Amino acid sequence: MINALKFFGKMVIVLALGALVVLGVVQLKKFATEPREQFLQGQMEARRVLVSGKIPGRVETLFVREGDYVVKDSLVAIISSPEIEAKKIQAEGALGAAKAQANKARNGARSEDIAALKAMADRAQDAATLAKNTYDRVQKLFDEGVLPLQKRDEAETQMKASQSAADAAKAQYDQAVAGARSEDKAAANALVMQARGATAEVDAYLEETKIRSPISGEVSLKLAEEGEVVGSGMPVVAVTDLDDAWAVFHLREDFLKNVSKGKRFTLFVPALDNNIEMEVSYIASVGDYATWRSSKESGGFDLKTFEVRLRPTQKVENLRPGMSVLLSVDAIK
To answer: In angstroms, rounded to a whole number, what is the distance separating the alpha carbons of residues 32 and 85?
Structure first.
């Protein structure tokens, strides 16, 4: 009886092991024969802008850190430039001098100078009138034969000289009243415009010392620290617009048959453990000759690759550049 039980137990164990072996072989055969889903791997990218200024100088203040969110036109950093401050003073001085010159040309001589010139003109005219009266009396006496010709000529010369002096004094007075010539006024106004242009230029340079973000996004990289000297065009920070993101794939040309702009695919993002619908937005017009697979060994041809970009059809939270994106091969075949 005991031997029968032992034999029965051994048979059960053998049968169980046999069943396990058969089940394992079946599963292995199924795993080996059934096709597995294949994926093409891409990567998320996003628009990134290197924020820089036109003016070289020392970073006086840096208002952001990596990870901060900035809005468009917000102040990122201030550059200190004493040279531009000095030019600002020079430009303002030149503008003041040009305005004074223009005012002088527009207003003409001072009222005191005009009054003095008017008095001189009146005095000269009185002298000319007296000389004319004297000449008339001398001429009358000459006509009567009382005075010789010499006296009449002297009186005539005196009259003409006095009138010329009166005319000259009157001209000086008129010039003072009229002010500067139109050409002088135009030249003075042109100098004012030139000085204003120089001041505006310096103001523009000063505004460029205030570095502002051209886009809204997240500060992904800080390239300078406070106190460091930066050159013209040297970036201070990098701002990434996470809302403007796309997936980049490099597809062999034999996978492009069913890929076209506007077509939508469902992609898997392992980092988010989520499927995301994306739309093809860009297909490179020229293949990449640096990345190819030779198929001449099998009598085929060289396969080039094309860059393909897909954008999410709606906003996806926590989707960041650098994340892997998987595209099913079956979806594009």
So the answer is: 77
Using CA atoms of 204, 210, 216, 221 in order, give the dihedral in degrees to the nearest 10: 130
pTM of the predicted structure, to 2 decimals:
0.60
Rounded to 10 degrees, the C-alpha dihedral 237/244/269/289 comes to -90
Out of 140-149, 202-211, 228-237, least confident range? 140-149
What one-character DSSP code corresponds to residue 71? -
Q: For the segment 31-89, what is each residue's pLDDT rounded down to a tens digit? A: 444 445 588 899 999 999 999 988 888 999 999 999 999 999 999 999 988 877 788 78
pLDDT digits (tens, 9 = 90+) for 140-149: 777 777 778 7
Question: What is the rounded distance in angstroms from the CA atom of residue 274 to the CA atom of residue 276?
Answer: 6
Q: CA gyration radius for the chain?
A: 49
- Give the whole-angstrom CA distance, residue 246 versus residue 45: 5
Burial 190-212 (b: 16+ CB within 10 A, else e): ebbeebeebbeebeebbebbebe
190: left (phi over 0), alpha (psi -120 to 50) or beta: alpha
Q: What mean pLDDT, rounded, does the chain reach? A: 79
DSSP secondary structure string, 237-268? EEEEEEEEEEEEEEEEGGG-TT--TT-EEEEE
Position 76 scores a pLDDT of 94
Provide the residue ranges of all domains of the chain, joining segments of one domain with +.
39-46+238-332, 52-82+209-237, 88-204
Dihedral sign for Cα atoms in the order 138, 139, 142, 146: negative
Please report which helix (H) or strand (E) contains residue 32, including its range: helix 2-33
CATH topology assigned to domain 52-82+209-237: OB fold (Dihydrolipoamide Acetyltransferase, E2P) (2.40.50)
CATH code 2.40.50.1020 for 39-46+238-332: no
